[in-house]
Amino acid sequence: MTMLSGCWDNKDINHRALPIAMGISYQNGKYKIYLDIPKVSERNAGIQVITATGDSVSSAVDNISMNMESQLDLLHLKVIIVDKTFAHRGLDEIVDSIIRSRHVSPKTMFVICDEPLDQFFKRINNPSNGDGNEIYDFFQKNSGWNPEIAYTPVWKVFRSIHSYTHDVVLPVIQSGETTAIQSNGSGILKNGKMVGRLSNEQTLLYNVFNGISLDGKIEVTGKATLQLVNSHIRHQTKLDNKNPEMYCTLHLNVIILDATGHPSTKEIKLELQTLLQRRLEQLLQKVQRTQADIFGIGQHFRNDLTRTELANWRTEYYPHVKINLKVITTIRNTGNLKLP
Amino acid sequence: MSNLQVSTTYILTHLGLIFFLYPSDVIDSTNEAQWLPVLTGFVFHLLIIFVYLKGLRYFQGESIVNILLRKNKIVAWAVLLPMLLYLSWIMIIAVRSFSEVISIAFLSNTPIWILILLLLLVPGFMTLHGKIGGLLRLSIMFSCLFVIPIVFVLATSFQNVDWHYLFPLWPGPRALHFLTHPSFYKSLFAYSGGFLLLGFLPSYTVYKPKAVFWGSLVILPSYLIAVYVPVLTLGEESARQLQFPYLFIVDTISINWLMFDRINVFLLLSLVAFCMFFIAATMFQILEIVRLGIKDISPNFLVPILITYSLIICLFIPDWKTVDLLFQWNTPLRLYVACVTPVVVLVIGWLHARKLKRELNST
């Protein structure tokens, strides 16, 4: 009897439905849930999309579970797709319920969808697209993920909801014309609510700034195309009478892929520096307007501010933050052709 | 060898307690600079162990029950009775809370009484069959089996830390504010849960106090990791929302090359084994007090009685809130046992030594 306790009420794997993606849309006070369940059959092809509506997310999931012939198991859910209305309304409740129930792993990715979920799920599961795992592969670091795409699991959103100094961005996607999925930049999330958008390029800068190591990223500067081999960033901070200042040194290691009009390496370096500075400035102004600290800048001032001051970081200090960016570029090689 | 066995026993009984409730208690007790409550608790722990071992050293090879009973009976029972109450209390809380943890963490469909029974039968079997020698040897086996998964999980849990959360290191004038918070005293159970066992060992094995102090150096990092990894990953505000902060952090680790998606299972299985070990050690102490202090009843009767009555009491605890409340109520008794027992042993030992000296001089 005691030996059996681990298998109590166990259901075999062929009696379980294991969705890989869940869509949540919010319309007129009702939640509509979409579950992407790979078909487990001998031919092993395709995907099944099941939908249900309910007053809350869990009641909608319950409705699906009730109407299905097998046990619904959300343990292996990899991606949660929400529509824009739901993201604007706030993800705090759904994040809380995910973390409370432990049925969904905190490593699950959050994604915002730019088009109605009905249409999205219909189009990505078009059999001509592939085996139906695109939505999963698209965000996997060892398959389809690219540095222009934000990568934000549930636990980071949870941290952002309660944190004084940390906000996140979520990838924004829609179904593509020629590919299954198309990336449309990312959405800025402040305390769990979507408050703005970033373009794909800005997301790349966000990833670089947050020290996510990027391999094989191509950066166009008008004079040349560069491949980022690796990057790291150093921060120094100064707090001067409620005016936080940050000095960042970005070390980039690049390889030249393409050059137009014979620029010298010096010109390329200069161009890259001004380009990144301009972009960062634009990006910072944008996020400061929304008061969402997606770079976690407040983190660097934890030593200078008391806890009560830190609680007001987003409103009192963050809008006055100045960033001085210095880019140090190493051109590791210029490919098979020489440059002047 | 026996020194090593005592070290591992001491480490294992404590490891089982650190990773579940302790982090959230410490995080509740202060807003910043969590190292202060952790180190304060640890110094307190070292102090009681030092005094306790010092007292025990006066009597070579005698169990604490015998030491206490050879003098004044009233003093002896003023120490032993709270100790007995404390041990049975902590055993019941441990069984009940671990069963709830297992239920929350991975066996959500299994009825709770089965888990409670499992957590009582296995340790009961360990105490009944192995006696203390078996437990000591078992500690070596457990360390060999579980040291690799535990170290692996502890190391990988640093995956998502943001070291900025370490600051500010010194919280200013409110630095000692945690001393007024009840959660801090609740967190002390992770320090006082296993130390009594050291007093029961001398009649079975010989060990040097150094073995225990080396062991405590091994568990100090575990205390710090259990508290700091959640704080560094999520920040104080978010970590405070969680029931079991450390277990949550282990859930967020993602390792591409590992075929297991949830490495939490490694940690939990090792910890459950340690918890069972802790419960078995507690059972052994209860048996010793009853057998040496009250009546020498065969363990073949005592262990089943103990299991049945613990099971019944555990089933009467309806929810997590009550478990928490019992923990809170347990605090004064815990402090009494942790402070009074070592001091009384030391005083008796000192008096004993002085008497011996006087007798030696007079002859």
Write the layout of secondary structure elements.
The complex is a heterodimer of chains A (340) and B (363).
Chain A lengths: L15 E2 L3 E7 L2 E9 L8 E8 L2 H11 L3 E2 L6 E5 H6 L2 H10 L7 E5 L3 H8 L9 H4 L16 H9 L5 E8 L5 E10 L2 E6 L1 H10 L7 E4 L3 E17 L2 E17 L5 H26 L16 H5 L1 H5 L4 E12 L7
Parallel strand pairs in A: 1-5, 2-6, 6-7, 7-8, 13-14
Antiparallel strand pairs in A: 2-3, 3-4, 8-9, 9-10, 11-12, 12-13
Helix pairs in contact in A: 3-6
Chain B lengths: L1 H17 L3 H8 L5 H23 L6 H6 L3 H33 L6 H45 L25 H6 L1 H4 L4 H4 L8 H26 L1 H4 L5 H8 L11 H31 L4 H18 L3 H43 L1
Characterization of the model:
The complex is a heterodimer of chains A (340) and B (363). With 340 residues, chain A is of the alpha/beta class. Chain A folds into 2 domains: 15-198, no CATH class; 211-340, GMP Synthetase, Chain A, domain 3. Chain A is built from 10 helices and 14 strands. The longest helix of chain A is centred in the C-terminal third of the chain and has 26 residues, at 265-290. Chain A is globular. By secondary structure, chain B is mainly α. In chain B, 76% of the residues lie in helices and 0% in strands. Chain B is globular.
